Prior knowledge:
The chain is α/β, with parallel strands linked by helices. The chain has helices at residues 27-44, 61-70, 75-82, 102-109, 112-125, 132-139, 151-163, 202-209, 238-241, 277-304, 320-323, 330-350, 352-360, 368-371, 378-382, 391-412, and strands at 2-5, 19-23, 45-46, 55-59, 176-183, 189-192, 219-221, 224-228, 247-251, 309-313, 365-366. β7 (219-221) and β8 form a beta hairpin.
Amino acid sequence: MLTLHKAKSPKSGNKQPKIGLAIAGGGPVGAIYELGALRALDESIDGLSLHDLDVYVGVSSGALIAACLANGISTDKICRIFLGQAQAGLKFEPERLMRPAYREYFERFSKIPAILSDTLTSLIRHPGQANLTELISRLGKAIPSGLFNNETLNKFLEDAFVLMGRGNHFSDLNCELYIVAVDLDSGTAVRFGSEGHREVSISRAVQASAALPGLYPPVEINGHFYVDGALRRTLNASAALDKNVDILIGVNPLVPYDSGAKGQNPGPSDRKLNSGGLPVILSQTFRAMIQSRMEAGFKKYFSSHPNTELILIEPDRDDEDVFFTNIFSYSSRKTLCEHAYQATRKDLLARRDVLAPMLEQRGLSLNMDILNAQQRTLELSIGNDKTSHAPVARGLTGTLEDLEKVLGSRKAS
Length: 413
């Protein structure tokens, strides 16, 4: 689904438009969808390089992709990494994000004796005031704040940036990057990368932005604890719009699924979400909340930034492939990314009459040869880059060769 808003007074003939990209969260499934959609967009618009834009904004899992793009890692390379190509030189394993947070468990459970002791003391001193509710409230302090260890996400990005010869600090970038998280103690949204919030590493900021309460523990940064940025901001595109971008591209993978019963999908489906149990029900509820908030925010941008071209990419409401994908299956991951790639290509082609003039006003153009290539696949698009191993490794090889030559010459003399 492609939503377009044409600027009222675009800068005609601007050959170097200022472009911003805002990527929402959506967990591992959302990230894989976003990769496929972004790859399709990247290759279908001549003059556009998604790893060479002016402003990036990332929320939750979208922060992971935004951080990579802002660091100059192209969409084809990111796809190769996340889809597990051996030639990528780095492997992303979603299973690592589901490792138990043993340290958190130990620290919380170690508080149980003190809690029981305090409760018993209170019961002895004030027997008339003790009740089951108070006991449960006190024991709640011993419940782990997150089931899984999100330190693996920080470590993955650290390794990725080192392996590819990229920096892990906001000052290392040639563009503006904003990673959105929520300060747990104040409930306010914080943009890492903005003034006063640039000292943290990019990988740690991403970890904080993706710390979904209940699943992952809050992330401590300079004495503050941060949780998932999606709790306050779905897309947070205003961070890019405030930088006066000419074009804003938004990607939001979280839309509520429409089974067709009484929604937008005219053909009723045999999918009844209630039968999926609590995880499916919570997913649908969260998606509905996120979508409602995102729609309200995007409509506001139409009037608050009338001179900016707005492009929003989302899945269709009846897209079962996005909603029911098992992201931990490699085949499912690959299928979903391909699905998002093809769906976005289809949307771009369907809206070309509106999109093409918008882009031409900014010195860009649709690549109709690529969009009309019916046999084109994501695998063909990203290729099999056997040279995509780390520049660091190649540089080290060259250094060793130079050293060998020096030592050889000294030995000969």
